[in-house]
Amino acid sequence: MSELVQGSVASNFIKNIVAEDVRTGKVAAVVTRFPPEPNGYLHIGHAKSICLNFELADEFNGKTNLRFDDTNPLKEDAEYVQAIKEDVKWLGFDWDRLCFASDYFEEMYQRARLLITKGKAYVCDLSAERIREMRGTLTQPGQESPYRNRSVEENLDLFERMRKGEFADGAKVLRAKIDMASPNLNLRDPVLYRIAHAEHHRTGDAWCIYPMYDFAHPLEDAIEGVTHSICTLEFEDHRPLYDWVVRECEMENTPRQYEFARLNMTNTVMSKRKLKQLVDERIVDGWDDPRMPTISGLRRKGYTPEAIRTFAREIGVAKSNSTVDERMLEHFVREDLKLKAPRTMAILRPLKVVITNYPENQTEWLEAENNPENPEMGNRSIPFSRELYIEQDDFLEDPPPKYFRLFLGNEVRLKHAYFIRCEEVIKDADGSIIELHCTYDPKTKSGSGFTERKVKGTIHWVDAAHALKAEFRLFEPLVNETENESEESFLSRINPHSLEILQGYVEENLRTAQPYDKFQFFRHGYFSVDPKRSESDLAVFNRVVSLKSSFSLS
RNA sequence: UGGGGAGUAGCCAAGUGGUAAGGCAACGGACUUUGACUCCGUCAUUCGUAGGUUCGAUCCCUACCUCCCCAGCCA
């Protein structure tokens, strides 16, 4: 287990249960599992579950398996298992065992035969529609299938022939014989096995019958010796069936299921279906598009595993539906990057400045701290000469009150350099500002101890002659929040401005920046080098998160 | 209207018979060569509502209200 994230998880109801089970000796060793279905990429909601399972087991010196719940070949793909493994590893977790539900298909089949032998399961010839019709409703009991009382021998024979592939998809299913009048719909003779003549990404065509989640999952947990099987709230209704399967299949181990509320976050979508739709319809640039809430998207955007883990720990684990403010996630990545990322200057929207009283053909090198809050990061030298770029936002012709930046006649400090005063605004024929003429005061050099007068503002800049061209990608929420979001309106809620691409400059010493290198661009925020877009001479920086700001022009 | 869950601040979330932790956000102020960071302060006389038990209730009891989940051969 990685030591990246220190400290124990705050109290939560599941941890209390585990602690009690350990204290009373109900379980000898804690075993949890993270059981994704390989039908999509992992997202921040999965991260909550991953952290819960791994950190919980770790805290009690237990084990956690990574188990692929690959019981539906129609939706699953090997591409996803690879991506999921990478994401879990990247988050910093090491699983005890790597498991696949498909490895247990034979045992599951035998357990199903046991059920049949005990008269607890039967082969049903009803169509999917008939089964649905006969299931009853929320308020009315269901009707028993006419196939419900077939003999054990006939059931065994039919089930074996299902496995052999004698029947077409949908022709027959294996059902548990429980109670068609149960108020819990899950207990109205649930389907245990269905026929699907489909290629499975691991077992190929070895099987044409596949177990349903409700049958497979408890068996998987029991087979692996999982003690605490943690899932989300919508499975609460399934718990009686979970226990029924473990009991009736006579499993040696008796795992217990506990349910917690899945993560919802403001300004994003978390359903795999919607995320897949965004990918399939090319609305985003793949599962790892920085705008996606996927682990791979967050990674590409520049998030760190530590930030995600701390977030997962701090939001807590409970049973009430909730929506966490995305600013909480942002808070933890700022906190993590604060001491880790060197601070440097980048101009996202350049405005040229000419220091008219600075000698032409002269360059001086100024000392700059890489991170004042982390002196170990040392210093660097940055060039300063007659022509610079500053941020367009840092000059206003008609400034409002309390505007501390540059305007005609005003003086500001250039970070790490000198005070400059704006003397003249140069415009083109259209009246657009093309450059500023300023003067500097040599006495005000950074570090000189100059105190004769003060300025209210300090702005960042880069030297025009040395600056490195760069591209910046700024992100906004992919979808707009609405009061009542309906499925239909999902695509109409797509934010057309979720990606903004800017061309500007960074300090020349960023020439050697590598993919995923992170920087705090002075007064802008944290940025991370994009692993895919950064071609040889044009680095692309993704904005991880902006700096907080109490300033606004409006 | 059957069954299963949940209601503690704008958002998360502890607590659980003894008088409401913490985080995010927000708002003041100090500091500041980042309008950042940091620091200080403010932010629930009240825990969905109404009754009841008790010396004392967010916690126990009763009734009610609101929200979420369940009628896939998905997970």
From TrEMBL:
Gene Ontology biological-process entries: glutaminyl-tRNA aminoacylation; glutamyl-tRNA aminoacylation
One term of GO molecular function: glutamine-tRNA ligase activity
Pfam families: tRNA-synt_1c, tRNA-synt_1c_C, tRNA-synt_1c_C2
Family annotation (CDD domains): GlnRS_core (cd00807)
Primary location: cytoplasm
Record domain Glutamyl/glutaminyl-tRNA synthetase class Ib anti-codon binding: where: 341-441
Motif ('HIGH' region): 36-46
EC nos: 6.1.1.18
Localization in the cell: Cytoplasm
Keywords: Aminoacyl-tRNA synthetase, ATP-binding, Cytoplasm, Ligase, Nucleotide-binding, Protein biosynthesis
Domain Glutamyl/glutaminyl-tRNA synthetase class Ib catalytic: 30-338
Subunit text: Monomer.
HAMAP family associated with the record: Gln_tRNA_synth
UniProt name for this protein: Glutamine--tRNA ligase
Gene: glnS
